[in-house]
Amino acid sequence: MPDADLLGCLAYASLTAFGRTAAAADLAPTLTAKATMARLAVTDYQNYESLVAALAERRIEAEEAMAPFIPPIDAFHSRTRSQDWLENLLAAYAGAGMAADLAAEVTTIGGTGLPDLAHDGEFADFAAEQLRSAVSAEPARAGRLALWSRRLLGEALSQAQRVAADRIDLTAALGGDLTQFGALLLRLTERHTARIAALGLG
Amino acid sequence: MPDADLLGCLAYASLTAFGRTAAAADLAPTLTAKATMARLAVTDYQNYESLVAALAERRIEAEEAMAPFIPPIDAFHSRTRSQDWLENLLAAYAGAGMAADLAAEVTTIGGTGLPDLAHDGEFADFAAEQLRSAVSAEPARAGRLALWSRRLLGEALSQAQRVAADRIDLTAALGGDLTQFGALLLRLTERHTARIAALGLG
Lengths: 202, 202
Prior knowledge:
Two copies of one chain form a homodimer.
Chain A: H1 2-27, H2 31-57, H3 62-66, H4 70-79, H5 85-109, H6 121-137, H7 141-166, H8 168-173, H9 178-197
Helix pairs in contact in A: 1-2, 1-4, 1-5, 4-7, 5-6, 5-7, 5-9, 7-9
């Protein structure tokens, strides 16, 4: 039942992305930034609802489908906590970009009927502009943020590898065997790196 | 311009309620509770958007309209912080109830065109049931939670009185002079108290 794994993993990822983005709203330096983060969090929650609805259509219990992904996703978040606004903004930007890339990959693979997931393009523009101007105001930030983006990627890949080893169904839903899964991660890595480089970091 | 004050105050209250409810989702003991809090937070954000849209229709700058209410609303939240799940659930329940009561009062007064605000009735049922069963499982909780609900009310009234003293326009939008405003607060207090008593507390 590959659908259960993919939908359950994305559902729990969306629910925790909601919490993380909402917490980042608290650190936002302006009301505009706060409201923008809150709007992104709403998108995360709406995606969670769509994924749970897709599970229900398949008569799969959402809590059960999410359960195997709670430890790795919680581990990712606890290893990449930050109280710094720019680091949180970059994490949200990188995460939203990677989620969109992953959704596109799944559509290409065509195996699973993923529900339409919302992607907040306005957020991406906002975040990119804020990050670029923060770096141009204080160029020393570039190195620290580049390091942070590599750490986010590293932790994400490490958890993904751990999950792939455990969950054959998920690997199958994402293209086949572990080699093909590795190639998928590599494509996501390349796009992440290009997105970060385009900000003037790294 | 009474509208600016009332809409600005409610807008900032909704935006911060979003943050507070989203943070409470992090403390929720089950996935169902987490998702329920996230859904309530989404309602808060949607209300924020409706209020900002109502300000825009009146050609009022949202940030300016919210600015006077940032100190008292932030003070309310910082004086009523808690890391306890049941206290946070009760705060969300009490806050949602009071917001609905206040919206009904404003409609009765009829002075201001308030946009339609969402009220999550499913959340109220969920919260009431969780709180009742938590207290029946451990009756000693009743006293602590009753005390907490009085503290929430006390801080809310204290900030409201401070705002009313400063903002003649807001007082006018909410029924007239300080005496009428005091009577409004008394009605809200009575309903809050009845709502808490119905949970088997205090």
